[in-house]
Amino acid sequence: MTVVKEPSFRESTEIMFNRAVRLMDLSPGLVEKIRICNATYRVSFGVRLRGDIHTFTGYRSVHSEHMEPVKGGIRFATSVNQNEVEALAALMTYKCALVEAPFGGSKGGLCINPRDWEPHEMEQITRRFAYELIKRDLIHPAQNVPAPDMGTSEREMAWIADQYQRMNTTDINARACVTGKPLSGGGIAGRVEATGRGVQYALQEFFRHPEDMAMAGLTGTLKGKRVIVQGLGNVGYHAAKFLSEQDGAKIIAVLEFDGAITNPDGINIEALKQHILATGGVKSFDGGTYHADGGPCMELEADILVPAAMEGAINLTNADNIKTPLIIEAANGPVTAGADEILRNKGVVIIPDMYANAGGVTVSYFEWVKNLSHIRFGRMRRRQEENRHRLLMDELERITGKSLSPEFRQDYLHGADELELVRSGLEDTMRGAYQAISAMLHSRDDVTDMRTAAFLVSIARVAKSYQTKGL
Ligand code: NAD
For position 325, what pLDDT does the model report? Predict the structure, then answer.
C-alpha cells in the first residue's frame, strides 16, 4: 500500500502493525484484541500557582494487560494528546514483548511546557497529576509502573514515588510504583544511561551481523562511521557519547531545537552537552559550524542516522533526501509510515524503535525487580566471588611457581557491582532481541525489513500470552 498523505503517529503505528499482522496466521478477533487500546484515562486538574488556578490536562493509557503490571513512561510536552499517548502505549506492548520484559504496555503524558515553570511549581503539578493517577491505580507497583520519557527525568520520578508512598504508607513495595528514580530514592545504577546504552549495544550487534550490514551496504565496524544525531537529550546524548568515546564513531552532526552543529572531524559530545546545559542551546558552540536551520543537516552524507528527539522527524517531506543507509530509531516513532515506505524502497535499513530504544524499559525492569526484592544486585555475591577468584589465582601461582601480573589479578579478582550487572543484563537482552529479529528477517521470504520482523516476533509473543490465558 502506498501512503500518499502523512498519517498521524497513531495511524503510522497501526499501518506498520497491520502490515506485519497480515503475514501472520492469527484469527481476526485476536488481532483486534492485540491492536486495540484497552483504556485511556483523561484528567484535567487545577493547581493554584502564581496567585491563580491553572488547569492542566493529562492522560494515562493502558494498551494491553496480557501481562501486569503495565509499563510505560510519562511525557511532559505541549504536544501530548490522546492519540499520541495511545500510539506510545501500543509501542510499549510490542517493545516489552520483544525484550521479554514481563509487562503490558502503557503510556502517560501531561500537556505542559516544563520550561514555563519553576522547579517548585513543577513539583506541585507533578504531585497533583500523580495523585490523580494513584487514586485510580494507574500508578501502582502491581498494576501500572511509569518511567521517565520526554520532558521528565529522575526528579519527577522521585516526586511520584514519594507521592505514592504518602498515599500508601503501609505498602512495603511502594518504591516499585515507578522506575527511573534516582539511586538515592530506590533507583538502579545505569538507568539514566540505559536507553542510549541500549542504542549502542543494538548498533554493536548490527555490526556483528554481516548479512544485515550487507543489506545496508556497510562494512567494517562502528569505528570511523559517520553518525548524525537528532536530539541531545537523555537518549541522544548517551548514545552519541558512547558511540563516539567507546566505539570510535564520528558524530558529524547534532540537531537540536535551536539549530544544528556540524563537524566532519567529529563533534566532542561531552563538550557540546556542557555547552547546552550552560547556555540552553547549541548556538555559539565553538567545536563545529552552527546552522540556524538544522533540518537539512539530517540529509547530510553519513553512515548512520540516529533520530533521538521526537516522533515524525523523518516524514514525507524529507524521507527522499535522507542519504544514510542505516537509521536507528532511538526516539519513538521518528519515521512516519509514509517515510518508512520511501526509505524501504530506497534500500535504507531501519532498526525499529520498539527494539532500538528498549534499553530503558529493560533496565526499568531490573529496577522494579530490585525494588521488590529490597536488595541491591550483587550485594550477596560480590565478595564471595572475589574470594573464590583469589583462591584460584593463589593456587595457580603455587602450582606453576610463577606470579600472575598485578593487572590480571586486579581484573580477575574484581567482583561485579550493580552497574556492571545491569550493563551485562542489558547487553544480553539487546543482543538476544536483535538475534530474534534478524533470525525472523532471514528465515522468511515475505519479510524484508527489520520493523516487520520485530513486529512478527513481538505480536507472536503477545498472541501466545493471550492464548495461554484461554482468550
Ligand atoms: P529528552 O527530553 O531528554 O530529549 C529530547 C531532546 O530533543 C531535547 O534535547 C530537545 O531539546 C530535543 N529536541 C526537541 N525538539 C527538537 C527538534 N525539533 N529538533 C531537534 N531536537 C529537538 O527526551 P528523551 O528522554 O531523550 O526522549 C527522546 C525520545 O526517546 C522520545 O521519543 C522518547 O519517547 C524516546 N524514549 C526515551 C526513553 C528514556 O528512557 N528517556 C526510553 C525510550 C524511548
Answer: 98
Nearest alpha carbon, ligand 1 atom 43:
357
Domain C-terminal end among 131, 154, 185: 185
Ligand 1 proximity of 234 Cβ (cutoff 6 Å): yes
* Active site annotation includes 283: no
- Catalytic residue, chosen from 5, 71, 95, 107, is 107
Which CATH number belongs to the domain containing residue 370 in this structure?
3.40.50.720
Residue with cell 547546552: 276
Residue type, 97: A
Q: How far is CA 12 from the centre of its chain?
A: 19
Do 252 and 137 fall into the same domain?
A: no
Pick from 350, 366, 349, 353: which is nearest to 429 by CA?
366
d(CA 452, CA 447): 7
Are 445 and 331 in a shared domain? Answer: yes
pLDDT tens per residue, range 59-82: 999 999 999 999 999 999 999 999
Closest residue by Cα to atom 12, ligand 1, is 231
Q: Identify whether residues 179 and 196 lie together within a single domain.
A: no
pLDDT tens-digit readout, 307-333: 999 999 999 999 999 999 999 999 999
The length of the chain in residues reads 471
| Sheet (strand 289-291) strand order | 289-291, 259-262, 250-256, 226-230, 304-307, 326-328, 349-351
C-beta atoms surrounding 420 within 10 Å: 16
pTM across the whole model: 0.95
Residue 240 near ligand 1, beta carbon < 6 Å: no
From residue 456, how far is each of 91, 98, 381, 459 by CA, in Å? 13, 9, 39, 5
Confidence of residue 4 (pLDDT cuts 50, 70, 90): low
